[in-house]
Each structure stands twice: as structure tokens, then as C-alpha cells.
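Let's practice the habit of predicting before peeking. Look at the sequence and jot down your guess about where helices and strands might fall. Then scroll down.
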Amino acid sequence: MVAADKVSDYRADPEIVVAYFRKTVPFDQLDEGVLRSLARHCKLDFYPKGTRILIAGESEVNFLYLIQSGAVSKYIVDAQGTDSLQDLRGEGQFFGALGIIQRSRANVDVKTVEDTFCILLPKRYFLELLDTQPHFAGYYLKDFSDQLAHTAYSELRRDKLKRRSFEDLLLFSNTVGDIVQRQAVTVDARVTIQAAAALMSEQRIGSLLVHESGRPGQIVGIITDRDLRVKVVAAGRALNRPVAEIMSSPVQTVLSQALCFDVLLLMLSRGIRHLAVEQGDRIVAVVTSSDIMSLQGNSPYHLFKEIISQDQISGLYPLAQKIPDVVRGLLKEGGKASHITRMIAIINDHVLSRLLTLLETELGSPPVAYCWLLLGSEGRREQTFKTDQDNALVYADPQNDAQRLQAKHYFTELAERAAYHLANCGYPPCPGEVMAASPRWRQPYSVWRDYFTSWVCRSDPQEVLNSTIFFDFRAGFGENRLADELRNELVTLIRRQDSFLFHLARQVLAVRTPLSFFRNFVVEKNGEYRHRLDIKRTGIALYVDVARILALRYGVRETNTLARLKVLADEGHLDRQLAGAAADSYELLMQLRLLHQLGQLEEKGLPDNHIDPADLTDLERRMLKESFRIFERLQTVLETIYPAP
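Done guessing? Here is the structure:
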């Protein structure tokens, strides 16, 4: 392989460079005068096919390389000397920006795959553009974030996970359109139930789509083998009745290009086994839970079925122990932290729902409507393997003293039994006793309204800090309207009392990231976690806090951190590029945490949040440092909104 010894001193023709800039994003948005000034400083260099232009860890990156013609490959060489292709870039694209932005040596090898001409923009002028042209900086910082996140996810999976078997897990690479085996079979809505059942048997399928009478293209419902069992056989319905009487309508659909993982989440959250597949404006097929389950061994859907089929509470106890195997499979396939935490949340929600359903069977119907609230990481759907019980209970205000006494007795029994059984399922009690089993957090709606009024309207900084766990609540079971009404009350309260958010913001602004003056990690000096840092307290929680404050300020009802960042960006409350960078950084922090905890579980240890930076790769350490820098940019946003008095 030819190596690039040095950059030529050949100055590019300014007119050629300006013409290139005019048709190349993001230079095409710069003023003509700026383009001509830049062109005078650019060089033009030629690299024959097979030339290694940059060498990871060795080459100084002194130029932004803009590909005028030809193409290059970007790859990482692992410890065994194996090339791992990261990217291919051709005419109109670039490389070298990451090293300049990070002020580091090249982070990947770059070699030409054909004869290539590059326009070279010196580092000095590239950095000036980043400082003076916001849209220009946004473009390259977004690319930097995407590259780094993609590379880091790949490296995390490759280095931290060892395959237990040779099966390919395809939830994150296959779309629904890739896996459906046949076109949908449809019947007229007037066809008899008996004829429809015969057709299903003949075609060896478990469902039929039903179209409007005389209009084959208008799908109005679906029937499944379960409908035949429950709505016909069990109900004693006549077989000569039209199939329209037993169909489910409207048909729940999913786009053919949807990832199988997202379809799996949809099935789990809605408790369904069949979805119609849309392509263009037509329904073309049906995808089933069995189709999805066939893609992986430790299927989340299989665990879900085990949970909902339990008729004894003790049968739920061992099921939480199966979550690590399910999560491991998702991580191994390529799931990001947001995928994993959503899946964990859905499984945990089903355990809770089944448990409380069985408890209601034991205790009888509740005297008034109630809602089991999920708080903290449970409320944000950001649970990992280390998940305490963070919950509360709100119930409708009783109408009289007798009903008040009944409610107090019933919900005391319900909450205490639930806490006991959840502990046996593997969810330990909250150390701070923020649980429905504690009388203070098991109250009528009016008391909860008073709680939030007190927290928002008082100016005691410590009480404000202690109350933050309650502001990420969501409905976990029961009457969702109680949680929705409480959220509406909270939004109205905060709009009238901004001092509450001022205190929250000033607490976040007082935080110093765990980086020294020389940008080294600040770790524990003594004790059990010597040489380690708490990635939750010093990293993840910081992003959670900022997203919460901004969401409360602007009335965003989402509780998930990534969802909050997206809504804030979509509604124009947070710069889109910064929100994207913050989302990527948060994902990486959660990914590090999940992999750290999974490793501890596989070694039969207890999961914690304390990682040793020395155990990370160079890329992971760079990403971790970058996440702290992004947080500092978020602090600047808060400082602008809530300046010191």
C-alpha cells in the first residue's frame, strides 16, 4: 500500500475551488467573499489508488480534506490487525473534521479506493468557520456526533459482548417487509364464519383480512384463530353468521419499512399478535408475533406471554431473572440504550400490571378509582438492571367518611402486598421509601394536588431537590385519567411559579463535570469505588435534570429524556443540533452503564453504576469526555434562561 509522505505545496486554482464550494454543502451557504478568501488558502493534492492518507493514532490532522473526485474508505484496525470498514466517502464529501474538532490525531485510517483528488482546507480556516458560521458549525458537529456515536456503538458491542451462539439476531436490521412470507389473504365481509374458518384451514394461516362488501381493496377488519375460539366456539355463535360480526375493526397497521424491533414493541405494548402491513396506500400482508419471534432465541414476546399467562402471583417471581438474557440478545444484535430501556420498561410494566390484576382478584374491586404511579427512572422508561421500586398511588377523592375509611384500608393492603411481591420479583424496595407502601405516598387526588402545589410554590432549595423524583411520574396501572389530570395541574402550577424551576436550574448550574483542568477524569480517591466514577450521578442524571427543567418550563408532557429533547427541539425551545448531540451523548452514557451492569450480572455480581475509566477503550474515553462537554453547553443554555440574581 502506498503511503502519503507529505502534502504537496501545490496551490489550487481559486476559481476551481470556488466552483466546488458553490455546489458543496455547507459551503454553498457562505457569502461569495468568504468563499473567495478561503479559496486562496486551499491546496490541491492527488492520491493514487491504495494510498493511506491518514493513520489512526499517528497522523496529525492539519487539513479538512474535501473530495473533488475519487473515493476513500475509513476503517479501524483492531488488536488482531483486522480491518473493520467504517465508512466510504466519495465526490463532494469530506474527512478529517473529527480530528480537527477534537484537536487530536486521526481516529481512523483513511485510504483511497481509487485515484483521488482532494481540496485541502487548512485547519486554521476551518476552525474559524466553526467559530463564526453557526450553520456551518452545526453541519460538521452533527456529522461528528453521528460518526462518533456510530463508531462507539460498534466498538462497545464488539469489545464488551461475546456471542453465546452462532444465531443471527435481526430485530434491528430487518424491516417487516423483509420477513413477511406471503401476501395477505382477504375475504368479503358477507362471507360466513364457517367459510372463513375453512379458508384459514386450507391456507394454513392464523388470520384473514376482511374487506368491505364488493370492494376488495377496502380492508375494514381482521379475524384471527383466537377470534374463532373466543367469539364463536366459546360464545356458541352460529357458523352461518357473516364474518363481519366477529372481526376486529379498524385494523391496526404498521408500515412495511418499520424495523422489526419497533413492531415488537408495538405488539408488546398493545398486547396483540397480528398487525396488517402497509405498503404505499395498500395493506399487503399480515405480520405475526411468531414471525418476529423467529428472528431471535430469547424472545421478549415469549417472556411477555409467560407474564400474562400467570394465574398465581408466585409464578411471576422467576420471570424477572430472564430479563438479562433478553437484553443481552438485543444488545448483541445492535440495540441502542433507548431500545433496551424501552423494552425493559414494557416488560416491567407487564409484571406490574399482572401483579396488580391478580391482587385485585384477591382483594375485590377497589372502592374508588385509582392509578398506580411510576416515578423516577420507571416514570421515564429508563430502567436498567439496577431498578428499585419508585412508585406511588393516587386515588379519587372519597365522597364520604365511610368510603374514605374503605379506601384507606383497601389501598394500604394493596400497596403493602404489591411491595412484598415486587421485591420477590427482583425489584428491591426504594432506600428512601418513596413507594406506595409508605402512607405518605398513597393519597387521594386532592392531597397529591396539595403536594405539588407545596413543592412548586415553596422556595426551600432542599425540598425542591428532594421532590424531583415525583416530576417524572407516569401512569403504570389503573385509571390513567388521574395521572393525566395531575400532569395538567402541574403544568398550570409551574406556569404561574417560575421560581421553582429557577432553584432547580441553579442546582444544575452548580454541578461541575468530573473532568480536571487538564480534561482528565476526576474519580473516587478512596473507598469501595476507588479509581471509579459514578456514571449515573456524574453523567446520566445531569442530562435527565436539564431535560426535566426545560420540559417543565415549556409544558412538555413527555417524561422520557430522549423524547423530551426531541420535543424541545421540534418546538424550537432547544437548538436542534445541540439537542441531537445531547441525545447521542445520553445514549452513549446509558450504553456504557448497561454493558457495565450486564457484565457484573454475568459474573454473578450485583449491578452498580461505578465504572473505571481505565477499563474503557480510547474511543469510549473520548466519548465520555465529549458527553461532559455537551452537558456544559446545556448548562450555558440554562444560564441564559435562569441567570444568577
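How did you do? The longest strand covers residues 83-90.
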